[in-house]
Design a protein that fits this description.
heterodimer, A: 477 residues, alpha/beta, B: 106 residues, mainly alpha, 5 helices, flat, disordered C terminus
Amino acid sequence: MTPLATSFVQSTSFIDACYIVAFSLFIYGMSGLTGPATAVRGNKIAAAGMALAVIATLLTPGVFTGTTTILLILLGVAIGTAIGVPAALYVKMTAVPQMVALFNGVGGGAVALIAWIEYRHDYGGSFALRVMIPSLFAAIVGSVSFWGSNIAFGKLQEIVPGRPIKLPGRSQTLLNVVLLLIAVTSAAILAAGTHSQALFVLGVLVVSGILGNMVVLPIGGADMPVVISLLNALTGLSAAATGLALDNPAMIVAGMIVGASGTILTNLMAKAMNRSVPAIVAGGFGGAVAAPAGGAGAAGRTVRSTSAQDVAIQLAYARLVVVAPGYGMAVAQAQHAVRELERALEHKGVEVKFAIHPVAGRMPGHMNVLLAEADVPYDLLREMDEINPEFSRTDVTLVIGANDVTNPAAKNEPGSPIYGMPILEVDKSASVVVLKRSMASGFAGIDNPLFYEPKTSMLFGDAKSSVSEITAEVQSL
Amino acid sequence: MNSLVIDIAILVLAGFVGFAVISKVPNTLHTPLMSGTNAIHGIVVLGGLLLMHIANGVLEHVLLVIAVAFGTINVVGGFLVTDRMLGMFKQKPAADEPAREEETRQ
């Protein structure tokens, strides 16, 4: 490049202009995600914005000069690409929640490390409050997010037990509050002018890391959609804080948009479970419930078990069949088998719809992704509010590996822990077939009266082979 | 206005933009939305890039390489997995169905 061109490209105004274009692309790309038809393009536009932001950063004078600096940057990018690309390309769609948790975690980890470097860089020097405060905030939140996401990953991957792990009674909440206070106090001491490397590492980074562990460990598997989206929002906010510290508009905008969207999603998820975010973070829900509240005990209630052949006959002669999938479908990888069944039924002239509860699965919209993977057209998928009025004219509802989201106790038993949670009203349909591995209760650990209703029949076994058997029977009819 | 005030103004406005844009996303797309926004906060990688040239000593360099690697995983992995997911959302198949089946079988 000519010297003139070089100085133009490296001028602050040019780089700032690039950042502005970059964050416009983020916003434009995100707004594309409002519809399935524009979403693919929207994601690519956002990715282009990211590429532009990276290029602009590297053009900043001094940033990409010197052999060591260039080599180390390339090394970091190479390692990240070598891990990120295969992970993204080969992850099974059923494992997407833990993948998102992991990607979120490393983002939080990067934030915490950058905050540490910033602190070290100005250690002993004059560290302006406008850099100090956002950096300390980023260090705390980034560290919480890193460790919290890793635990969430561990729980979803079943490395860490999915049931809540917590101290008895209220002591867990107390411990978490104390940890948070230690981290915030350490940060305040540092911001007040005490320069101590040890206090930064131990008091802020390590204590926040322990806090991240302590917050997510007590949360049950069923609450994971809320946790992941909360952690996502936190990492976004910490990225925005890093942007404030570095005076970088692209980071501020991108981080804040993620913070806002994560907050919206978190609230939506919590509302779909009729629970508050603080109650979920306080933890201990899934599995902690002892006996079913009120109603008849298990004794005296009978479960009707059925065969694939009977189910096939029921389905083939129905007019409208609604499929209600849950996490069990994901675990059994049954989505392709379900698609085959849907095709076989359609062939017989049966109308098939899918009822999607907002918190079915382990992350918001999890079922939609799995069914999309199996090529189920998205216009067959119905959201809860849309499908509930239709259950009264449904002949057969096929519940595949869903439990708590179909539990009528949420409507009928004020004593039930999930009372008030909006559910798929499958008990209103003429008959219900539940595909389930065994009579074990769902992640929330709550008994489901639906299974004992006279119109319900149960087909026990692996969801994938059960569905395939039913499909074969339907085809042979 | 000093740059801090400007930065905070940007922060607040971006929050409102985020709320406005995202509240229109249907349930169907919540997973891709989450993984897409997840990729976007990988923007922290810029922080690693910006600080690399001022780092001193082995520790700071190692930490920054890790930070850049983490940020890159976040960005590249996030956008790719979102793209893969979104590619699966299709409308009711039309006449070209057999061809599509071949695609999905891979």
